[in-house]
Amino acid sequence: MIIETREIEPFRKNGYVVGCDRTKEGVIIDPGDEVDQLLDAVSTHGLSIKYILLTHAHMDHITGVDRAKKALGAPIGLHADDNFLYKAVVQQGIAFGFHVDPQPPVDFFYDGAGPWRFGDYGAWVHHTPGHSPGGVCLAIGRQDDPSRTLFVGDTLFAGSIGRTDLPGGDMTTLVRSIREVLFAFPDEAAVLSGHGEPTTVGREKRTNPYVGHGHGEHGSF
Ligand SMILES: [Zn+2]
Ligand SMILES: [Zn+2]
């Protein structure tokens, strides 16, 4: 599986390109301000992008959607419970002091687990509300192999968890999503977050100070 990660200032938000080495089909996840670097990675690998998949609709995760859609022509997927945030991307920018352009409408809402297939791989969608109402984990892997790589957005970080003070956020819900959805995956499952370094389910189970106690306010939007 091809995985390329890019991040730039000011948000240092991770955007991802995930591809199938055999068929050269792929998906792009959360294109933000680093969209040009993601598109370069798509070209370098010669990928045909089938979907633009969003983990949630905070502005740092969607500012590059318009450019990605124009360059790739792929449909945009989001959980319906975050569409109010997606449609308000310009207002999100104003609230944080940034100019943000409007983004094209979502093409489809995740209805059930999927998978959304690309080549030999699929992206299974698991609803993980708490950081935002429509936050999801995209669990990506081969159809015939149970191991999955988890693209968790801002739900869980290496050593931290997502903030819950933005519209629709809720700490109890977030902690439940992490414990019941993300921690149900095997300890060795890789966790690729919306910000910061990769981690694993097992490492966060053992060492994450926020999930064991059910409180704490920290993280990035
Ligand atoms: Zn973020
Ligand atoms: Zn966020």
Give a topology summary.
Blueprint: E1 2-6, E2 15-19, E3 25-29, H1 35-45, E4 48-53, H2 65-72, E5 76-78, H3 83-87, H4 89-96, E6 108-109, E7 116-118, E8 121-127, E9 136-142, E10 149-153, E11 156-157, E12 160-161, H5 171-180, E13 190-193, E14 199-200, H6 201-207
Parallel strand pairs: 3-4, 4-5, 5-6, 10-13
Antiparallel strand pairs: 1-2, 2-3, 7-8, 8-9, 9-10, 11-12, 13-14
Bound molecules: zinc ion (ZN) (2 copies).
One zinc ion binds at residues 13, 58, 60-61, 154, 194-195, 220-221.
Report what the structure shows.
With 221 residues, the chain is α/β, with parallel strands linked by helices. The protein is 22% helix and 26% strand. The chain has six helices and 14 strands. It has helices at 35-45, 65-72, 83-87, 89-96, 171-180, 201-207; strands at residues 2-6, 15-19, 25-29, 48-53, 76-78, 108-109, 116-118, 121-127, 136-142, 149-153, 156-157, 160-161, 190-193, 199-200. The strands form three sheets. Strands 1-2-3-4-5-6 form a six-stranded mixed beta sheet, covered by helices on one side. A six-stranded mixed beta sheet has the order 7-8-9-10-13-14. Strand 2 (15-19) and strand 3 (25-29) form a beta hairpin. It is globular and about 45 Å long. Residues 213-221 have low confidence and may be disordered. The structure holds zinc ion (ZN) (2 copies). One zinc ion (ZN) is lined by residues 13, 58, 60-61, 154, 194-195, 220-221.
